[in-house]
Write a structure and sequence with these properties.
Layout: E1 2-7, H1 13-21, E2 26-32, H2 35-42, E3 48-52, H3 58-66, E4 70-73, H4 80-90, E5 93-96, H5 102-105, H6 108-114, E6 117-119, H7 128-142, E7 146-158, H8 175-180, E8 186-190, E9 193-197, E10 207-211, E11 215-221, H9 227-231, E12 239-246, H10 250-260, H11 276-284, H12 293-301, H13 308-316, H14 331-342, E13 351-362, E14 368-378, H15 386-403, E15 411-413, H16 418-430, E16 436-442
Helix pairs in contact: 1-15, 3-4, 7-16, 10-13, 11-12, 15-16
Length: 444
């Protein structure tokens, strides 16, 4: 029996653990700081066990890894290199859904010498985005085509019937992480020209995105798209763009949230005992007893008092006499905590994961084709969210494939090779996570 150590019992762990527990030859150990969370995931499965782990207790962590055949790390990304280091030391395989960082990449040669794989980026974004893109890119190259343009847009959103708040968003993921992503600069390639966008201007660069079979969302750039030119093996590309999808209006409001400074994560000692309206007054330099804070805020931001960003900030409570969260020590904390309070899924509501790729390929005879590949996946009312399924299931499938000898790669890997993406995509389709493709000729 193969023993799998799952480190972490957070929002995406349930589908992964349930998948692995369903394989009779696997024993699954779920380790979490909170034992009750791990126990809920394991339930009464005879091949499962829950235990506690404090990841800063490195000796205990190493013992758990040493006694397993494979470790799945669902911990915060800063711990992945620690887990990976122990896996290499003891000749154990590793799977994680997070981006490869330099500290992880530095373990590549040692992992190869140890004969183990450190498989990263096997979630949804990153993960399903890589696999679905490479599936089509390799088909284009197999026909001796060149990829001229590639757009890849992804968003985790409320399903339309659950989209009932002015912000058009609810949290199926850690709110601080979602908000922090708004501080990242972005870079992409457009018609051969590199476009750089500073983090402070990120949300000012957005445009409509037509999603096949759904309607129109809005998209803004997602970090640095340029490294994917090498990752995907497409040096011929002229346009390379990865974006984040939201319901229309999100970006206009976030532009003003950024201008207010609410993404600042610097520690402050002046947030205790004040209200949201008092904080807003301080941020705009107004009197705390301003006769019309809404008008003063609008004037400070240079927009009409009746505009959507002002209405959204009012709906969030930034004009109210509600006390700030006592645990907040940064402006970013204030925003994230308030958003989480106001923008959560009610029981029975569904989330939705939307991913769409657009490829323009050119062939030797001069012909050009546009291929659109779209995935729209919904959560299960009262069950697993789409976010947890699309993150957890690819990692679970890959774990099974590694332990059953169907993935034999070693070293630091991401799922851009057929040995990984073909079987994982095939099984995801059987589980209802699938793409719809449409290809059409282009003239000119």
């Amino acid at each position: 029996m193969k023993r799998i150590l799952v480190l972490g019992a957070g929002l995406v762990a349930k589908p992964l653990v349930q998948y692995l527990l369903a394989v009779p030859e696997f024993e699954v150990i779920v380790a979490s700081r909170t034992l009750s969370r791990a126990e809920r995931l394991v339930g009464d499965a005879s091949n499962g066990r829950a235990t506690t782990i404090h990841v800063d207790d490195r000796e205990a962590l190493e013992r758990l890894i040493r006694d397993a055949d494979l470790a799945v790390s669902l911990l915060p990304y800063v711990y992945h290199p620690v887990v990976a280091g122990f896996c290499v030391k003891h000749g154990k395989q590793m799977v994680t859904t997070s981006y490869v960082k330099d500290a992880m990449m530095a373990l590549d040669e040692n992992a190869k010498r140890a004969g183990v794989v450190l498989l990263n980026e096997i979630g949804v974004d990153p993960g399903i985005d890589h696999m679905s893109a490479m599936n089509i890119i390799h088909r284009i190259h197999d026909r001796n085509g060149q990829l001229v343009s590639f757009h890849s847009n992804t968003g985790g959103l409320p399903a339309p019937e659950a989209n009932d708040n002015p912000m058009g968003y609810k949290f199926s993921w850690a709110p601080r992480g979602v908000v922090m992503a708004g501080k990242n600069p972005a870079r992409f390639l457009e018609d051969g020209k590199t476009i750089d966008i500073p983090g402070t201007k990120l949300f000012a660069h957005h445009w409509p995105a037509r999603i096949s079979g759904f309607g129109t969302l809005e998209v803004y750039p997602n970090r640095d798209s340029l490294p994917y030119i090498e990752t995907y093996g497409i040096p011929e590309i002229k346009t390379m763009f990865r974006g984040t999808l939201r319901y229309p209006g999100w970006c206009d409001t976030l532009v003003k949230i950024v201008e207010l400074g609410l993404l600042d994560d610097a520690e402050r000692d002046d947030l205790g005992g004040i209200t949201f309206s008092q904080l807003t007054s301080r941020l705009i330099g107004a009197e705390s007893a301003a006769p019309d804070l809404r008008e003063a805020l609008a004037a400070h931001l240079g927009i009409p008092a009746a505009s959507k960003p002002i209405s959204d900030l009012e709906w969030l409570g930034f004009l109210s006499d509600t006390p700030l969260p006592p645990a907040a020590t940064t402006l970013l904390d204030v925003l994230a905590m308030r958003m989480l309070e106001r923008m959560t899924y009610a029981p029975g509501e569904r989330d939705m994961l939307v991913m769409q790729h657009e490829f323009i390929a050119q062939y030797a005879d001069g012909s050009r084709e546009k291929t659109t590949s779209t995935m729209i996946d919904y959560g299960v009312p009262g069950g697993d969210t789409s976010m947890s399924r699309t993150v957890g299931l690819p990692a679970a499938i890959a774990t099974r494939l590694i332990l059953q000898g169907e993935i034999r790669l070693t070293g630091v890997q991401i799922p851009v090779v057929p040995e990984i993406y073909e079987p994982v995509l095939s099984e995801l389709e059987q589980l209802g996570i699938r793409f719809e493709e449409r290809t059409e000729p282009l003239s000119g």
